[in-house]
Amino acid sequence: MKAALMYGPGDIRVEEIERPACPEGGFILKVSAIGLCGSDIRNLTTDSRKGKYPHIYGHEIVGVVDEVSDTCTEYKLNDRLYIYPVDHCMKCEACRTGHSEMCENGGDYTNRQGGFADYVPVTRTQVERDSIYRIPEGVDMIRASLGEPLSSVYACQENINVTFGDTVVIIGAGPIGCFHAKLAKMRGAKKVIMVEINDKRLEMTKQFGVDHTINSMKVDAVEEVRRLTGGKGADKVISANPSTQAQAQAIFMAKKTGLVVFFGGVAKGALTELDTNYIHYNGLWIYGHYGANSMQVQKAFELAIDDAFEADKFVTHVLPLSKINEGIELTRTGEAIKVVLIPNEE
To answer: Residues 167-199: pLDDT tens digits?
Structure first.
């Protein structure tokens, strides 16, 4: 099969390798489409595996069952499936308290073979847990691939209760920021303000219901948010980017008793300086968001394949797997909102 192998930071080569063996109790999925995620790009362009190469990444996987173990009875050939990357044990304290996104025994998808390949093995453990969802006939596979990146956004907005009448600031107009804008509007937000440093990305966000755009390289973003909110600040501020500076500024964009979300992970070891006096005297809530619990994963997938979500607007580039490096560059420059790769190309 063909696969995109990472040999080191930024060194990704599409090569012919041996197709994986069918795992006992599991199956082999023929990958139909796979999204290119910001975390994938971070892993592919840094020494994410500390020299343990080559490796195949990719976790936004949808496809068709191509081979089934004799001991796997739940799935059959040609089943259309979405594979959520983290299989939750549903037995640890985190899972039993409704926080399976913090599962103590979750599957380690960054170390097993990923989906930037023609075929990917799905293990017995994944089959027995909660990570596999059937894709209805007639649903486009590219649309279905948005279920995974949408899951964390869906979970975040459900957890912080974005609701009717809210003013929401989103810092970062990448794919995740665009998902946040669309979902906030669907949940009834009155005003969505997008903060970003790329004018082209800002312009693209307007199709997702963004009411106001701010280029923070050209104006003081905090002052502009204050102006747009009558001096009060926003109900909710979501920092959806890898910048410590954005996190530090986010607290000043929130109203008194407002809520600030640190959604985007920053570089390991990077520390954010926060004015805790400001947080204290303004009664701010600070929430660090990561992942989605099992039910939120399911609901997000159902939304992704629903026409109301308008998935086609998010996917700006569909490329063969062989052009993965081009997809990385399109995403990094802001040319693309969401890149989806198609393995098994002729």
So the answer is: 999 999 999 999 999 999 999 999 999 999 999
pTM summary value: 0.95
Please give the radius of gyration of the chain, using alpha carbons only, rounded to the nearest integer. 20
Residue-range domains of the chain with CATH: 2-146+314-342 (3.90.180.10), 151-288 (3.40.50.720)
Percent of the chain with pLDDT over 70: 100
User: Quick one: tokens of 19?
Assistant: 């197709």
Half-sphere exposure of 84 (CA within 13 A, CB side): 30
Q: Which residues contact 299 (CB under 8 A, 6 or more apart)?
A: 154, 158
3-class secondary structure per residue, 139-191: CCHHHHCCHHHHHHHHHHHHHHCCCCCCEEEEECCCHHHHHHHHHHHHCCCCE
pLDDT for the residue 346: 57
pLDDT at residue 38 is higher than 90:
no
Evaluate whether 98 touches 60 at the Cβ level (below 8 Å). Answer: no
Q: Are residues 118 and 4 in contact, defined by beta-carbon separation less than 8 angstroms?
A: no
